[in-house]
Amino acid sequence: MQEKTKEIITGFDNLISENVKVNGLKTNADGIKGNPFFIGEKATDARLDFNITRDIDFIQSDLIYTTGILYTLRPLINNPIAESKHFMGKQRATYFQNLYDSLYSMYASFCYEKLYNFWDRIGDKIATEFPSEFPNPKFIMFANVIDKIRANNSENENLNWLFEFKDSDFREFNERRKKVVHYEQIETKYMESILDNMSDMGKVEEIWNEKYSLPEFFKRHIELTNKGIENTYEFVENRRK
Predict the structure, then answer these.
(1) Which of 43, 73, 109, 200 is positioned for an S-S bond with 104, CB 3.0–4.6 A?
(2) Helix boundaries (H) for 81-185
(3) From CA 141, how far away is CA 134, in angstroms rounded?
(4) How far apart are the first and last CA of the chain?
C-alpha cells in the first residue's frame, strides 16, 4: 500500500514539476536567497533574520508549485459556456462542478495565502533593518512597514520600487485576497456569479475568463516576487557600505 502511495505521489509531483517548467514558473533569485550576505548587519536578532530569509525562500517555492497545480488542473475544470443548455428559448449556462474544478478553486485560495505570506515576510525582512522602529519584526505587516519607512527613505531606489509596488500591484492583489479570505470563497463566488447570469452568455464568458486566467495572474505575481527579492537584497546589501 505504501509503495503504491509513493508511486502516485511521485507521479503527481512529476506532473506538477513539468507544468511548472512548461509554463515558465521560476525564481530568478536563487543565488540571492542562498547568499549569506542576505542576512543584514543591522538586525539585532541574527537567528530571526536568518529564519525570515529562509521563509522567503520556502514560501516562494510553495507559490510556484501551487501555481503549477493550477495550470495542471485548468484544462479539466468546468466550462459553463461549453456546458450550456438550450432551455425556454434561450441558451443558458450550467455549473455542475466537477472534482477538478473544486480542486482548482481550492489551490487558487492557497495561492492567495502564499502570496500574502511572501510579502508579509518581505516586510519582516525590511523591518529587521530598522530595529528601533520595529522592535519585534514578527508582529508587523508588509503594508505597515512600507508606510512607516517611506517618509525618511524616499531617495532609496530599491525601496522606491517596493513603495510603488505596495501602492499598485500589491493593493490590487490584496483587495482580491481579502474578498476570498474574509467574505466569499472562490468556489462560491464563481458559482453564484455564473448562475446569477446564466442567461447572459456574454457576462458568463467574462466571469469564466477571469476564473480561467487565475494561473496567469499568479504567474505575473511570481515575477513580481523575484523583483521584490532582488530589491530587498540590494537594499540590505547597500546598507553595509
Answers:
(1) 73
(2) 99-127, 142-150, 157-167, 169-178
(3) 11
(4) 58
